[in-house]
Design a protein that fits this description.
28% strand; eight-stranded mixed β-sheet; 22% helix; Immunoglobulin-like; elongated; alpha/beta
């Protein structure tokens, strides 16, 4: 026998009250002296002995009544044998959902919450019987690993009566960065329970119950719920908001990233806590080396941008990381990024009309446009001027771009080497001029073996000085002209007095007109040759045919064209992804159908293939990747030995550790009866209906009433 209110057993001390009253008020016999009256003395002794016996019986009745009343107030009950009672219960189907989201990696004790959740589930499974069935499921199931050779077929979940299966599923539970989809997971659990023939059903959810995924959830979203369903929630941690500081995002200043030039790196931090943080160390690491540190103060819920200024490292691929001093949720204390730097582009400037001085040469304005330097005296380009006669002695492989300015002709050997240079990935920019004549140029560059011109050249068109041509249309989406997308009038103010006519461009599908004059004549045309690009500017690089070189817009225009031809856009931040969102990796036009290999941060390999998407007018060759394993830097090996990096970061949705309290959970899970157990008091309250008990308080109260009635009758007879 046990008691629900054992403290009320102190009421049994009240049994001393009738005993004390009895001792104080007990009757004492009077002594009378009757000499020689012996028979009277004997009668008095017999009467006194009988009276004392009645008094003791009354005292016993009163003490027993008070004792039973105290016991009744303590709520006594008889508990049956648990194992025997459970064996008598009908079978039960159990689905146990374990929250394996990122927030369950929170370490408010020595071990992460997910590990402690698995230990609690082991206790939940321990009393299940042979006739009971169960299934242990993660709240976030693994997504199919696309791009993984030999991926096994999807496993179908079924309830099992095998304890080995339960333990294996529990041991295989790992953290998952997938998006929380409570509706899908609970629908799956309800379907499994509804399909079970067991007369009793139970759903157990073990979680820390942070708000992510629960904001818009309610059981009313389900059409059908399983019958006779018990809902049991086990909370890890407390219902209070947990402290956490997170690196939310990162930006790097506008590319290109040229070695030796300063880079502005900005990390955005947020304090997801109710308490401030003081002097929080924030480190910037590049290629595993710390290159900067800031100490930051954060008020509760404050977001702060933390700037770093570093010098761009040597040309190549580089990996970086923003790292905070680790707190209880270390997974969002890191933010990975990758970027590529390049050496300043080497540009070969070929002067087709050298003058007696550089100021009077064809390339004067072009050289001035390419020589501006940054505040640290670091150049974006290294222009190398040569006269057109010295072109035979130049190694084109030492340059990224070759610019021919009003060059009359080149030798067949130079023409062939120039074609090979462009075909291998180099850039070629052609400027017109008085020495550029249609017939020799078409013979050199518009032929099947060295097809560098997009179309055949025509004769020069001379405009009256009072009626110059201006730029009428710009392709603002083109990478080389993107700077002028918001301010096209900067280019449209320039005046052109002479230009070369071109053949019909609509017959050449690979040619693109980037700048068009008022007359409809092309001013700038581009087309691809192999892996390289060729641009034809139908006016001059100097002011012989236009006033463009004398205008401020000339410098950004030349920078845009040379940067595009030298592929300086590659000197930028590399692809990045936030788990679990897929990332699109872009390839080149010839990569369609080619394979690429991705090595994850923990050493696994994933195989993908590029595929063409979009219409024939604007095809894109891409590969979609989502088979992540862990956050970190992923290595990409593409066709023809191309290497790249992919920065993968943990989801930030789980960084908000605000919790749902019991009332909020009850509101979302109505109309099911809900039992919420806390981790700290787990197992102390037995809500299992299979454990029998028998209430005894009513029997004790009936006994009290009966004893008092007997005492009243017996006392009145005295």
């Amino acid at each position: 026998m046990t008691f629900l209110q054992p403290l009320l057993l102190f009421g049994t001390l009240a049994t001393a009250v009738p005993i004390l009253i009895h001792l104080i008020y007990r009757r004492r016999a009077l002594v009378h002296y009757f000499p020689a009256v012996r028979f009277l003395l004997l009668a008095d002794k017999r009467t006194a002995r009988k009276f004392r016996l009645h008094q003791w019986l009354l005292l016993a009745l009163r003490v027993l009544a008070i004792l039973l009343l105290a016991l009744a107030l303590a709520h006594p009950y008889l508990a049956g044998d648990r194992a025997q009672a459970m064996a008598a219960q009908p079978p039960q189907a159990n689905v146990i959902l374990i929250d394996n989201s990122l927030s369950m990696q929170y370490r408010d004790q020595e071990t992460p919450r997910l590990q402690r959740a698995k230990a609690l589930v082991a206790q939940v499974l321990q009393p299940l019987r042979a006739q009971d069935s169960a299934l242990v499921l993660p709240l976030l199931p693994d997504a199919p690993k696309s791009g993984t050779p030999g991926t096994p077929p999807e496993v179908i979940d079924v309830l099992s009566q095998s304890r080995d299966t339960w333990e294996a599923d529990l041991a295989a539970m790992v953290p998952n960065h997938a998006a929380v989809d409570l509706h899908r997971t609970l629908q799956h659990a309800f379907d499994l329970l509804r399909q079970s023939a067991a007369p009793r059903r139970r759903l157990v959810i073990v979680s820390d119950f942070t708000v992510n995924g629960w904001e818009s959830f309610h059981l009313s979203q389900f059409d059908v719920l399983p019958e006779r369903l018990d809902l049991h929630l086990i909370r890890l941690g407390t219902a209070e908001r947990d402290a956490n500081v997170v690196v939310e995002s990162l930006t790097i200043a506008e590319p290109p990233f040229i070695e030796g030039i300063p880079l502005e790196v900005t990390a955005v931090l947020r304090n997801r806590s109710a308490a401030p943080r003081r002097n929080l160390p924030v480190d910037l690491r590049v290629d595993q080396r710390k290159v900067g540190q800031q100490l930051v103060d954060l008020q509760p819920d404050e977001q702060v941008a933390v700037p770093f200024r570093i010098t761009a490292p040597a040309g190549g691929l580089h990996q970086g990381e923003i790292r905070l001093e680790e707190d209880a949720l270390s997974e969002d204390d890191h933010f990975y990024f990758a970027f590529q730097t390049l050496a300043p582009a080497r540009i070969l400037i070929v002067d087709g009309d050298p003058g007696p001085s550089l100021f009077e040469s064809e390339i004067f304005y072009l050289m001035q446009a390419l020589q501006p330097v940054t505040a640290l005296q670091q150049a974006l380009f290294h222009p190398i001027p040569v006269p057109w006669e010295g072109l035979d002695h130049e190694r084109f492989e030492d340059y990224q771009v070759v610019v021919l300015c009003n060059v009359e002709a080149v030798s067949p050997q130079v023409r062939q080497r120039l074609y090979q240079f462009v075909n291998a990935g180099g850039g070629l920019l052609l400027f017109a001029g008085n020495h550029v004549h249609a017939k020799p140029y078409n013979t050199m560059f518009y032929r099947s073996d060295t097809l560098l011109l997009p179309v055949a050249l025509g004769e020069p068109v001379q405009q009256p000085e009072e009626q110059p041509q201006t730029i009428a249309r710009i392709d603002p989406a083109h990478e080389a002209l993107r700077l002028f997308a918001s301010e096209p009038t900067l280019l449209q103010r320039s005046r052109f007095y002479r230009y070369l006519a071109l053949g019909a461009l609509d017959t050449v599908p690979q040619a693109k007109t980037l700048l068009t004059l008022d007359s409809g004549a092309p001013l700038l045309v581009e087309h691809g040759v192999g892996h390289g690009r060729v641009m034809m500017f139908t006016s001059t690089a100097d002011r012989d045919w236009s006033d463009l070189p004398t205008r401020p817009v000339y410098v950004p225009l030349i920078h845009g064209l040379i940067s595009y031809l030298s592929n300086l856009s590659a000197a930028s931040q590399r692809p990045n992804a936030i788990l679990p969102a897929p990332v699109t990796l872009r390839g080149q036009s010839e990569d369609d159908g080619a394979s690429l290999t991705i090595q994850t941060a923990d050493g696994h390999e994933r195989l993908l293939r590029y595929a063409a998407e979009g219409g024939p007018d604007n095809p894109n060759v891409v590969a979609h990747f989502s088979a992540y394993t862990v956050p970190g830097i992923y290595q990409i090996s593409g066709p023809q030995g191309r290497q790249d990096l992919l920065a993968v970061n943990a989801t930030r949705a789980e960084s908000n550790l605000t919790k749902l309290d019991n009332s909020a959970l009850e509101a979302r899970l109505q109309p099911l009866p809900l039992w919420v157990e806390e981790e700290a008091t787990f197992g102390q309250t037995d809500r299992n209906p299979a454990t029998p008990s028998k209430e005894l308080a009513s029997f004790f109260l009936l006994a009290v009433v009966g004893l008092l009635a007997i005492e009243n009758v017996y006392a009145n007879r005295l």
